[in-house]
Design a protein that fits this description.
heterotrimer, A alpha/beta, B mainly alpha, C mainly alpha, A: Rossmann fold, 6-stranded mixed sheet, 4-stranded antiparallel sheet, 9 helices, 10 strands, 33% helix, C: mainly alpha, two-stranded antiparallel sheet, 13 helices, 1% strand, globular
């Protein structure tokens, strides 16, 4: 049974078909990269899988169960997502960001008469999440005062708080320095092996260092799926990136 | 049947008056994302200017010409010297600017009350436009037909400017991508100031035109602002054509309920707005090509 | 990242925590002083100050309701006046039309308001930002129009003869301004305490998350609309409490209590006082009521100066008086 499967996925905006009959299967525990030239539909694909857009037709399955509807429902089914542009709770501290994330499936979330500090299990979860991401030193710092690299770390940490089976990362290396990129690679490789990861990235260093298999998207369709070597040798991939004239050179 | 026809024409007249206000408001919002609650202030100022000019020169036509000028000036100044700098300083969000214009609305109402007192004023109907005319079997006031005519003329004019001229194209581009248009060398701040001024002038024009028909008083802007917003939201914020159709809907609703269901008159249009919000929050006319 | 930078950041964080605890201590002292002052007020001064204080507290409760939405959840409503009015009219209708005792009409009013708020909130929260502002305004105008037109509410003349609580079982006369002052004071303290608990609760933390980033909150797994409606209901009930007190204070309610100008004044109070604290709305209410009183003594042109005042506050004191004072007092030289 695959962890994530997209079957006959279509997405049309008016006259423009952005995703055209996309089929993708990711087995559990795999590290899959999704790459492709700009406009290939990578972000639309992620938005479809995580419920921010609804498909014109087709289905997404997680562990064999169909997934549909709004982002909050999608997170419940075990998919988490980190965003290309940081979406942190800026005025709140790092620990509060994590605590709110960890609270999402805890029964205490509906309580409005007792202090949030009374629910120690949630706080402990948040502190453990911080430890995993090496954020313990900056727990009391408001998110808006973090460096860009630290914000990216928090961004991933928040996604992991929902204890997902599948993690979708939308261009996590965007805008990072070489040191931060190295740390990002370590971070991804350090994640539990049973966590399925789908990585949308432009940065090929990160892709090659972390992913088992690469899927290339072009014009809303899967062009090729293979290992690094297979993709690099594939002429259709070359053509998609560089244009018709260079194919076969 | 005759009564019905009269009501339809009344509705049309009301619609055109609302359109003059709504067009300016929706332009300002569509282009600058500013919720200009001070729009009522421009309406009030136009009316009072008209009263002053008509009172001192005895000419309605001069009042019509000069009345919108103060709102125009105030609009340009407000946008370029207050709203734009605040927005650029980053200290103020769109909400803050909306609240700021809210304060201006009250300040203006208070200021005119200070200068003119709380008496109800008016502009006399000009001789050329007074009296009735026989139309389709009923006798209808010429002045109301004049209002309808002005409204339609403005609608045609605005549509022409936005669809066919370079200015219109630039404005449409500015709505889509403000930074790009600025990068192309267009003075985007000047553009916004002009549009804000134009919107204000239209509101001022509406004030002068409304004066012979209704009373001119300090709070007139406050009551009209909410109704204008209903029109703008129903038509789709930033949608010029949508505002035209929405003005027709709201104007007709108002006139019909005034005539046939006076108990619900006060809230008919709000019920309409709520209905629209439930069904299509983005306005009824989203599919109509956004002109601005 | 170098060790020095990390150390500097940690020590700044530590400094921040120490500064925060200093501010907290100072606030506690100020709050206690204010409480003692409030308790002793009627004995210390003329009855004019007492009536002013009653008006401030009622306005403060109204502003607190608005702030739960504005500062707490990031929702700006220009229609909270409708709930204030519904509260006042609720006891008005309950007492003078249905002849019910207060201990029945007050809870019934609050329940009706909560149910209405659930429905209205469900509709309004389908929109956000500017559209939300406008639709709350529209609902408010709807109720305003109904209050003027309906015979039940006695039209624009309003309803009079609204009773104050019957405290004869305590040997006290509710009509006595001093007794009424303490009654309002107790309610104000309860409301402030309730607001504080709600903001500190898990529910309150979710509202804060929605305010900071609605998309993130949804991505975390929260059913954002439900929480917004919940906040809307609590805010509505709070504003209704203010309305009940208001109608008892003047023995009277009329449609002006639900005008959108009133809603605007409430928002101004919240902005003046600052949206980030529980006490902000109360401070803002105090500043507003005092300024309004002062202005009406100085000049007959209240509206013009109110408008100018409003603009200045929005332009320069966006974070509110409380924040401005804090940064003035605690900024490093």
């Amino acid at each position: 049974m695959s962890a994530l499967e997209a079957r006959n996925l279509h997405k049309r905006f008016g006259g423009l078909e952005v995703i055209a009959n996309l089929n993708l299967t990711v087995p559990p525990g795999q590290r899959r990269a999704v790459i492709g030239p700009n406009g290939a539909g990578k972000t639309t694909f992620i938005n479809l899988v995580t419920g921010w857009l609804s498909p014109t037709s087709g289905n997404v399955f997680v562990d064999g169960h169909a997934v549909a509807g709004r982002p909050e429902k999608v997170t419940r089914s075990g998919i988490a997502r980190s965003f290309q542009r940081n979406m942190l709770l800026e005025d709140l501290t790092v620990v509060e960001n994590l605590r709110v994330a960890c609270q999402a499936f805890h029964p205490c979330r509906r309580v409005f008469w007792r202090s949030k500090q009374a629910f120690a299990t949630v706080i402990e979860k948040a502190e453990r999440a911080a430890e995993r991401m090496h954020l313990t030193d900056i727990l009391a710092v408001p998110a808006k005062h973090l460096s860009y690299g630290q914000k990216r770390q928090l961004e991933v940490a928040l996604a992991l708080c929902s204890e997902p089976k599948i993690l979708l990362m939308d261009e996590p290396a965007a805008g990072t320095s070489p040191q931060e990129r190295a740390r990002l690679i370590d971070l991804i490789n350090g994640l539990p092996r049973d966590l399925t990861i789908l990585l949308v990235e432009h940065d090929m260093d990160v892709v090659f260092a972390t992913c088992d298999l690469i899927t290339v998207l072009s014009y809303g369709k899967v062009l090729a799926t293979g290992t690094r070597r297979e993709i690099q040798d594939d002429p259709t991939v070359m053509e998609a990136y560089l244009g018709h004239r260079h194919a076969g050179d | 049947m005759q009564v019905f026809l009269t009501q339809v024409l009344n509705g049309l007249q009301l619609s055109m008056l609302m359109y003059l206000l709504a067009a300016g408001l929706t332009l300002i919002f569509g282009l600058m994302n500013i919720l200009n609650l001070a729009h009522g202030a421009f309406f009030t100022l136009g009316a009072y200017c008209g009263v002053v000019v008509a009172g001192s020169t005895g000419s309605f036509w001069l009042a019509l010409l000069v009345g919108p000028l103060l709102p125009l000036l105030l609009g340009v100044v407000l946008q370029s010297m207050v709203l734009q700098p605040l927005a650029e300083r980053g200290r103020s969000t769109h909400l803050d600017l909306a609240l700021l214009t809210f304060g201006l609305l009250f300040a203006t109402a208070g200021a005119v009350e200070w200068v003119f007192g709380s008496a109800f004023l008016s502009i006399p109907t000009p001789v050329a436009l007074s009296g009735h005319v026989n139309l389709l079997g009923i006798s209808y006031p010429v002045y109301r037909l004049f209002i309808i005519g002005v409204g339609l003329a403005v609608a045609v004019g605005l549509t022409f400017v936005f669809d066919r001229t370079l200015l219109g194209a630039t404005l449409r581009a500015g709505v889509d991508n403000r930074a790009m248009v600025a990068a192309l060398g267009v003075n985007i701040n000047a553009l916004f100031a002009v549009v804000f001024g134009l919107g204000a002038a239209l509101a001022g024009l509406a004030g002068v035109i409304a004066a012979p028909l209704t009373s001119v008083y300090s709070q007139m802007g406050i009551t009209i602002v909410v109704e204008t917003f209903v029109v703008v939201v129903v038509g789709g914020l930033g949608n010029l054509r949508g505002s035209f159709y929405a003005s027709l809907i709201v104007g007709m609703t108002n006139a019909m309920s005034q005539a046939y269901l006076p108990e619900v008159e006060m809230f008919a249009i709000y019920a309409l707005l709520i209905g629209v919000m439930i069904v299509r929050p983005q306005g009824l006319f989203r599919n109509v090509e956004r002109v601005a | 990242m170098s060790n020095e930078v990390t150390m500097a950041r940690t020590s700044t964080a530590r400094e921040g925590i120490t500064l925060a605890s200093q501010v907290r201590r100072a606030t506690l002292v100020l709050a206690t002083a204010a409480m003692l002052g409030a308790l002793a007020l009627p004995w210390l001064s003329a009855s004019y100050a007492t009536t002013l204080a009653i008006e401030i507290m009622i306005a403060g409760i109204f502003a607190s309701g608005i702030n739960l939405l504005l500062g707490g959840t990031g929702l700006v409503s220009l229609g909270q006046g409708m709930f204030l009015g519904l509260g006042g009219y609720g006891v008005g209708i309950g007492s003078t039309v249905l002849g019910l005792p207060l201990w029945l009409s007050v809870p019934m009013t609050l329940v009706v308001v909560a149910v209405l708020a659930a429905g209205i909130g469900a509709v309004c929260t389908r929109t956000r930002g500017v559209e939300f502002l406008l639709i709350t305004l529209a609902f408010s105008q709807l109720f305003f129009g109904a209050a003027i037109k309906l015979r039940l509410t006695n039209g624009s003349d309003g309803m009079s003869g609204i009773p104050r609580p019957d405290l004869t079982f305590l040997g006290l006369n509710g009509d006595n301004p001093v007794v009424f002052y303490y009654y309002v004071l107790i309610v104000t303290i309860l409301v402030a305490a309730a607001m504080w608990r709600i903001v500190e609760s898990p529910f309150g933390s979710i509202l804060a998350a929605i305010r900071e980033s609605e998309r993130r909150a949804a991505a975390m797994g929260y059913a954002v609309s439900s929480y917004k409606v919940g906040a809307f209901i609590i805010a509505a009930v709070t504003c209704a409490v203010a309305g009940i007190l208001q109608s008892q204070y003047t023995y009277f309610i009329n449609p002006d209590s639900m005008s959108w100008q009133l809603s605007g004044e409430g928002v101004l109070m919240v902005i003046i006082g600052g949206t980030t604290s529980i006490v902000g709305p109360l401070v803002g209410a105090a500043v507003f009521v005092l300024a309004k009183q002062g202005l009406s003594i100085l000049t007959t042109e209240y509206m013009m100066f109110f408008g100018i005042f409003f603009m200045l506050v929005v332009a320069f004191f966006r974070n509110g008086v409380v924040e401005a004072l804090k940064s003035a007092l605690w900024s490093k030289p």
